[in-house]
Amino acid sequence: MDTSQGMSPVVDNNLTLPPIADAAAAPRIDCRNIKVFYGETQAIHDVSMSFPDRAVTALIGPSGCGKSTFLRCLNRMNDTIENCRVEGQILMDGENINDADVDPVLLRSRVGMVFQKPNPFPKSIYDNIAYGPRIHGLANGREDLDAIVEKSLRRAGLWDEVKDRLMAPGTGLSGGQQQRLCIARAIAVQPEVILMDEPCSALDPIATARIEELIDELRNRYCIVIVTHSMQQAARVSQRTAFFHLGNLVELGDTSQIFTNPREKRTEDYITGRFG
Amino acid sequence: MTDKARSPITSAAAAKHLKRRRAADGRFRYYGLTAILTALGALAVLAVSIGSQALSAATYNVVRYDITLDPAVVAPEGKSRPADISRNVEGFYSLIRDNLLDTFPEAQEDRVLRRELSDFVTRLAVLPTARLVAKNPELIGSQITVTAPLNDDLDLYLKGGGVRERKIRTGLIASVQAGAEGTYALQGAGAFDKLIAGLTVAGEGRATDAVQMDVLLTSGASTGRLTSITPGAATMELLTGKAEDFTNDRPTARIILSPESERTISDRQIAWTLALKDMGRIKREPRWTLLTNSDSTYPELAGGLSAIVGSLLTMLVTALVAMPIGVLAAVYLEEFAPRNRVTEFIEVNINNLAAVPSIVFGLLGAALYINFLGMPRSAPLVGGLVLALMTFPVVIIASRAALKAVPPSVRSGALAVGASQMQTVFHHVVPLAAPGILTGAILGMARALGETAPLLLIGMVAFVGDVPKSPMDESTVMPVLIFSWSNNAERSWEPLTAAMIVILLAFLLLMNGLVVFLRRKYERRW
Amino acid sequence: MLQQLGQLPMGWLLIALIAVFGSAAFFLGRTRAERLLETSIGRMHSRPNYHGYYVAMCTVVPVLLIAVAYAIFADDLTRSQLTRELPSSFDRLSAPELQSYLDSVRMAAGTAASSGADRVFQAITNRYLELRGFVNAATLVLLGALAAIGIFWSQSRLRPDFRARALVENGMQLVLFLCAGVAIATTAGIVFSLLYESLLFFQKVSAWDFLTGTRWNAQTNAEFGALPLFFGTFMIALIAMLVAAPIGLFSAIFLSEYASPKARGWIKPVLEILAGIPTVVYGFFALLVVAPAVRQLAIWINELIIQVGLSSEPVLAAQPTSALAAGLVMGIMVIPFVSSLSDDVINAVPQTLRDAAYALGATKSETVKQVVVPAALPGIIAALLLAVSRAIGETMIVVMAAGKSARISMDPTSDLTTITVQIVSLMTGETGFDDPKTLSAFALGLVLFAVTLAFNVVALRVVKKYREKYD
User: Fold this and answer.
1) CB within 8 Å: C361 and A106
2) Domain count, chain A
3) Chain B contact set for C242 (CB, 8 A)
4) Is some CB atom of chain A closer than 8 A to the CB atom of C372?
5) How many CB pairs under 8 A join B and C?
């Protein structure tokens, strides 16, 4: 059942990876025997997998397969859902983030998240970015904060488009810009990991292309986990891919391998469009 | 491995910062909890304060009288028709007063005492007896037992309200000797030790002799007032009963903390009440008269029947006017109205009407119905019409929500088999929305039932002693009766008002219970 | 004969006649349509029932109009004729005196037991009955004639291809529209009656003096400066909001963000009980519990201040009824109005916004304070405005617990009076509609209506905009 069990956690011989990724051979996040329950129903069955630093891991699978639920385990967003229970270990820097004494607030500042629908706060562009640094006390004074805002917007590739209207409301931007604003907002807190939950599903193809480019740039600095229902997108942006089905991790491997030579029958059926 | 220090968040300063943030988080939650508990606490205080008052009015003390229906008194010549007998308050009252005078002969000669004794029962309390005799004239000449409610102040006293007192059991009285002018010397070794200690406490250490404070000593049906006291002896002035009762007894002493001049009841009245109680002639009964009597100026006779009937008549008018208009208007707005200025204006009007202060509707009622249309003041018809104007916006809003909840597929289905729009709406949509419409209407009616202010302005605040028989009769309603009673100065109206409130709330609870029941039974999710 | 007619119970009679005419017309129409159905070739446009409804409609509507006209004008008509016929000795009576005399005549005519009254009265009563009998008879004849015309005319129109259903449904739709129009009529009635009586008042007292005068003494018909009333209303509403705004808002936040669904499931209905309790009950509560407690507290504070030496005489008024007592209880009453609507708007804030804040590492309180509440702010402000409007218009609590003295005092333990209290005290008891005392109540009502309307309109508009934003 658990196909990842037999594999070494990170077998990363993808030659397209930039050299910097080789340095981080050790996984950034290591999940062991994750089970998630909503009340009585089990949504995730005993999933173990790890996420390498400075690489993009894509989670694919038909809708309702638990990939988003699994993603939300990684920064304990499931805590905000009533009667949702997570079992198992998720190790970051050797520390289990599911431990009771781990503060989810602190965890989430290290593991940022971008959501399906762009969700800028009903505040100005500047305040959207500055919100995270402000609550965590990351900036010393106004100039420092300005610098963080600029740096984050630059990294998100949004600076040139909005630098003249930083005080305009974030909700006034186009959908693609809003999503990049949300990415910039996540970056501003200086996370180590960025989780993306179908970040392009509400966007048009051009905006999607921009976001995908951005993801590709960001992987030089962060461990990125992206949930997507588009197999093409997974193939384009990720180095590793995990296929989920009915709450189980069916197959995990290098993206090129999963898409060209899947080991599991179910993976093949899904990729070739027999179900999904 | 990434070093932890890479992120500034994991630094020591950040940890301190986080601790502060966590504390702020906890405080915020605590504010919310405090707010909820304050609101719930206020509700609890309200419920307990009114509930406890109402509980004391749920029962009252009635006195039993054995009277002989002397024909010369109850049906004197020329006044022996049943109608005359039923109105012969004075005659029946004199029978009861004579009965009391027989029981307490000491009041017979003294005019002040006679008046104090006649306060025990109000004249009008004999009306039920008079009516009974008028209906059964064969009773005349025989002896019958009647009951009449005890005077409201004495009733309150027996329930432990109105007069503050402390009860202390004295020691054994060995002997009683008559002195001058109805005074008696009581003796018993150490009999009054505890009483003296109690007096010291009650007088806050100031005075220990009984003369400064009212102390009543009761043994059986006999009661006296202490005039002086030492540990082994005391003198008392006998108020009622026989002095012999005290010998070889341990009488109960009552230290009355409020002086006689500040009370509505005298020492003598207390003594008689205790005596009647000792004779077993006072019984505490459930106060059904609260539901069967109409308003009265005497608290012990007052009841809410006329107001309850008035409320029902008013609600009937309100329901007959507000419900059809409200439901039909909602049907129009939800199913037929074109999207135009007129419709929008109607909707704005409805929403605003639902928020207009109720007293403004009272002014409208006074100007329109009474001044312009010349309708009678104080009539349930006018009250009901005023409340209908207030209620129908609520009915419209609730009915629209219910109609909106019916899925469009139902309409399409009916239209597809060739029903006209009117048929679709009245054959399919309205029946499906009926439970929702009904619950909304009941909630609107419940609000109207508790409404007071607009009814004051159309004269429904008048004293109404008769049960109204039609919507045109002079009438009052429950909330207005509560208001009128709460305006009465006497303390004994307080529990009565609270009891009336409980009756009103019971009606409201019934209506809300009905709503919950309807929702449970017919709730349907599409 | 006419006198007997004058004693007819016309109300019941009219209702019965309408029912009889209506059902008779319906059956006649349906029978005729059924006969048409048998004889006609091809299909009829409408079912026979609709033909019946059509005939009934044509019969009942004119009859109903006559009945309404009778209810409104019959008494006036009789009276004006009777007044014209009264002996000249009645000329010296003033209008209200004449009015009350005629009222008693009508009363006597209604009971028909006028024995013992003087002969003039008896004669006038009999004449009243005769006139009334004439009006009644005329009404009944007219009614019967109209009903007959309605039945025969509408029946003659029935044909197989007659569109009875369409006509009936148009009629129904008109009825529905008229029902909805009652809302406009009610508002118009409020505005018109308040304006009309207020204008009469302002002919006697200048509007400027009314709005800015500081002395109110309406009961003795002398002074109509309403400023102390406005002040009292404002003061008590302010106290109420100081209680209700924080408690209501924090309750809403706690319920929507912190409470478990189970706790929410029972706390919310319990809080809503507060809104369902009749205001007269709150008034009694204020009178019984809160006002004495406030008084005790004020006395205690006075003693404390004297003991400490800050002042040599009592600072607080410590009256048995006080603005503070009324305001506190009103605040409790208003809590659910704030909490319920705030709860709604807070729940309408999309979960994605909360998720965004949490994902950045915001704590719950930071999310609430910096994201949820600002997003819900327009709705929360609307809730507060509606609550203020409710507090300003609330009557029973202030009538029972706020007192009656019109003064401007910052001391919350002194008794203040409000607009609503004065309206009630002016309108209860003996009132005549030409008395400036009574009219001033309408002027106060106009101010009250205008102010609450302004609050409501703004609030409802904000709520509507807000709903559109997140829908």
Assistant:
1) yes
2) 1
3) none
4) no
5) 266
pLDDT at C146 over 80: yes
Query: Chains that contact C by 3+ CB pairs under 8 Å?
Result: A, B
Q: Which chains are adjacent to chain B, needing at least 3 Cβ pairs under 8 Å?
A: A, C
Q: Which pTM value belongs to this model? A: 0.85
Q: Determine whether the interchain pair C279/B453 forms a contact, defined as Cβ–Cβ distance below 8 Å.
A: yes
Q: Determine the residue of chain C that is closest to A105 in CA distance.
A: C361
Residue B4 has pLDDT above 50, yes or no: no
Residue A14: its pLDDT value, please? 39
Interface test with C, best of B7, B356, B385, B520 (most C CBs within 10 A): B356
Task: Give domain status of residue B324, yes or no.
Answer: yes
Task: State which of C204, C229, C258 marks the end of a domain.
Answer: C204
CA distances from C187 to B320, B351, B360, B361 (A): 21, 11, 11, 10
Q: Which residue in C353, C360, C470 has the most chain A C-beta atoms within 10 A of its own C-beta, making it the best mutation to test that interface?
A: C360
B315 touches chain C (CB under 8 A): no
- Show which of residues 62-81 on chain B sit within 8 Å of chain C, judged by CB atoms: none
Q: What is the CATH number of the domain that holds B473?
A: 1.10.3720.10
Q: Is the CB of residue B509 less than 8 Å away from at least one CB of chain C? A: no
> Are B359 and B499 part of one and the same domain?
yes
Cβ separation C393–B31 shorter than 8 A:
no
Residue A214 domain boundaries? 26-271
Q: Tokens in use for B201?
A: 């406490």
Three-state DSSP state, A213:
helix
Phi, psi dihedral angles at B120 (to 5 degrees): -60, -30
CA distance A135 to chain B (A): 8
- Domain tally, chain C: 3
Pick the residue of B325, B336, B340, B359 with the most C CBs within 10 A to test the interface with C by mutation: B359
Residue C417 near residue C236, CB atoms below 8 Å: no
Question: Domain span at residue C336?
Answer: 209-470
Which is nearest to B150 in space by CA: B162, B138, B158, B142? B158
**B139 shares its domain with B216:** no
Residue C352, chain A, CB below 8 Å: the answer is yes
Cross-chain Cβ contact A113/C355 below 8 Å: yes
* Touching partners of A (3+ C-beta pairs < 8 Å): B, C
Q: What is the pLDDT of residues C210-230, one digit of tens each?
A: 998 888 887 776 788 899 999
Coil, helix or strand at residue B364: helix
B40 to chain A, closest Cα gap in Å: 25
How do residues A71-121 score in pLDDT, each as one tens digit?
999 989 888 887 889 999 999 888 898 888 888 888 888 899 999 989 998
* Residue A5 within any structural domain of the chain: no
Look at chain B and report how many structural domains it folds into.
3
Average pLDDT, rounded, for chain A: 85
B351 plus B382 within the same structural domain? yes
Min Cα–Cα distance to chain A from C383, Å: 20
**Residue B20 placed within a domain:** no
B4–A93 CB contact, under 8 Å:
yes
pLDDT tens for residues A149-177? 999 999 888 999 999 999 999 888 999 99
